[in-house]
Amino acid sequence: MKTAFLFPGQGAQTVGMGAEIAKRYSAAAGIFDKANRIIGFDLRSICFKGPAEELNTTMISQPAIFVTSAAILEVIRTKPSGSQIRPDVTAGLSLGEYTALYAAGVISFEDGLRLVAKRGEAMQAAAKIKEGGMVSIIGLDEEKTNQLCDQARQDELLIAANFNCPGQIVLSGDKRACQRAEKLAEKYDAIKAVRLEVAGAFHTEMMASAAEALKEALQKTDIAEPSEIKIIANISADYYETAEKIAEGLIKQLTCPILWQQCMAKLLADKVERFYEIGPGRVLTGLFRRISRKTKVINVSNADAIEELLS
Fold first, then answer.
1. Active-site hit among 69, 136, 203, 301
2. 290-309 per-position pLDDT tens digit
């Protein structure tokens, strides 16, 4: 039976994430301690105690989610009962793709953490250049969403940037264009439009300066060639074939749409039957329910879930 490990992206963070896991499992505590040494500030404390305002910033939430996901993964890897739970393929939503690369063994924990810290910092800086936003459109297909985009755009930037699951597509672009889309959504029979609390227009050309900063960081990073464990790319919904393509994909990811629904459809078509969401929250578990009701995702987001999995 083919197995996939799925890793969440930005938005999955909550104050307290990882605290009980680190208390119960020394392997997880070791990952948080290691992260603090690498990143140079007390990320562990922000994850465990907040404040929420700090945890929710782009530059903090991205490394925080990466480290919490890696801590859970470390417990699974180091417990004898976890030896049977190994992925054939890994996937991560946007930021989660870095955890997927780490889980597949193509980047080290140190490099992964440094990259996501740089990514978060660069995206937050890019968001300050021009006011952007994102709005989730619920209940429309791709054609209707594109029609809504066309009307709301008005010579400003607005694109469909996240294809999450059937009936959930996220628009991203100029803040005013997002506001227009929010107001027009009802006209196109959307169930609702939800403004996302994000710093800027992620996955659009408004993140071009962040992509340049990330490119510089990637040039100093060792990426191994994919081997036994496959990694699926957000931007193409296909498997990475080379280390060079991985670096290209991570850069493009900042300015191009995220094809999560298509990624999951590819895994299902390739006969992946067992899925684990590893990391804080239940976002991917919820999205998958809309993609395939027949397939169960095992959510591993807290200490009790880890214990149940490994018992």
1. 203
2. 999 999 999 999 999 999 99
Helices 109-129 & 208-219 angle (0-180, nearest 10)? 160
Say if residue 66 is exposed, middle or buried (CB neighbours under 10 Å; 0-12, 13-18, 19+). buried
pLDDT tens digits for range 255-268: 999 999 999 999 99
Asked whether the whole model's pTM tops 0.85, one would answer yes
Q: Which of 61, 94, 172, 301 is catalytic?
A: 94
Q: Is the pLDDT of residue 94 over 90?
A: yes
**pLDDT score for 241:** 97
CB-based contacts of 228, cutoff 8 Å, min separation 6:
none
The residue written with tokens 């937050």 in the block is 124
Sheet bearing 192-195, strands edge to edge: 158-165, 168-174, 132-138, 192-195
Would residue 209 show up in a list of annotated catalytic residues for this protein?
no
What is the C-alpha separation between 161 and 200, in angstroms, rounded?
A: 12
Question: What's residue 287's pLDDT?
Answer: 96
According to DSSP, the residues that pair with 163 across neighbouring strands are: 169
Cα–Cα distances in angstroms (integers) from residue 67 to residues 36, 43, 210, in the given order: 10, 9, 21
Averaged pLDDT, 98-121: 98
Under the banding of pLDDT at 50, 70 and 90, the label for residue 81 is confident
- Rounded to 5°, the CA angle 212-241-260 comes to 70
